[in-house]
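User: quick one, fold this
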Amino acid sequence: MSFTFISPPEPESNRKLAYLGLAVLLYVGVLLLPTPAGLTASGQVALGLLVLVIVLWISECVSPANSAIVLTGAAVLGLMGHPLRAGGPAMSSTAALTTMLTGFSSTAVLLVAAALFLAVALKLTGLDRRVALLVMSKVGISPSRLILGAMLVGFVLALFIPSATARVGAVIPIMVGVTAALGLPVTSSLGATLMIVTASACSIFNMAVKTGAAQNLISLNFMEQAFGHTISWGGWFVTALPFTVAMCVVLYLAAILVLRPEVPAKAEAEARLADEVAKLGPVTPAERRLMVVAVLLLVMWSTEGTLHRFDTTTITQLGIALLLMPRIGVMHWSQAEKLVPWGTIILFAAGISLGTLMATTGAAAWLAQVTLGQLGLGALPVFMVVGALSLFSIVLHLGFASATGLASTLIPIMIAFAQTLPVGREVAFGIVLIQSFVVSFGFILPTNAPQNMLCYGTGAFSIAQFAKVGVIVTIAGWLLIMLLSAPLWPMMGVL
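Assistant:
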């Protein structure tokens, strides 16, 4: 008798399978519950899907792209036979699938895809590395200057790269190189400081730039659908500017006072950094062309709605078209398609589909009423409402590893709740806009954001070190939101 030996699954595989099974069981369990008063059958399916993806995203038992596929399949099975809206016809499998594919037709998805192509262009030309090295070589070799340099690099890259993971992935080797150039191990106080600042500054600049993170675009997509208007690239930047500048100051002070980085004599380090810059060689023609396109994009983004009527998505698409053209551009499709994180785009579209489903079926409004509506926030001043909602978001973020997933889950609920408040449409829009900033609050745990995990993977710092700085930054950020919501943002017309 012959037999084939089959290796037992790895413990990690067992764990992931258990979480996947739990997610499916919870989804089925929600569907089997009696439909609550005020909620349609399709709304109940939407809530079940929300529970399903929350477990998938928190546990990371499947990849982001796989979670989107699981979500779509479960949605079709759940929605079949139910009307999308009360009084409508029962949906077939085709109608249910069409409903769950609406996110793929969103202009926000197209913008994310285009921005990721821009990130690929920076990577292929090496312009991201050149910018990072030049900045770090010019700021000077002292703890305070190196921290400022890390922040400056993060800000410059955030203007053009919408992926926090991609930005941090480009910066980490530079920071490791700076630490090594000073003759220090990556686990030194300086190494820990630069890595923590790199990760945390990335989260701050996610909030600063409209195109800096996918979660911003997810939030804006939902807000456009609900309120009928949006905010320009420049409007977003100006609104977020006082907050992000203050957050950078807090991060700088926290890093200096808590981590106390130290450096040795600077002469050798400066020489090594100069060598690294020299190895880059002269600026290539491709880099020059990319710099021209990047500057044009920045000018067009910042003047959106004032000097021209092109929206952010259209501007970015035209820029990518230039970068893909023969001789004029810097890359071709066969290069780009291998480096673009398509899973991110799929997850982004699926998240929009889920949020749209929750809004359409009334599930978001029902959930907002039974949760946030019970807190009695409607009678409070606007700045206290903003503070309470922000605290709710910060606590919820502790369980999420993806700000994109958090935005897909939370923003539709925030919109539904804001629409119940005794405030005007513009103020409600501003309340949700501020919550779209808070979605990027991934400061406390390394698991709160992918960029945190990348930096943590270098071994430069402990969880305790990260949390010490992160708690300070988070508390200060929450207080700043309360402060700005009282005098400044109302004066700016945001609230």
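User: anything notable?
Assistant: The radius of gyration is 23 Å.
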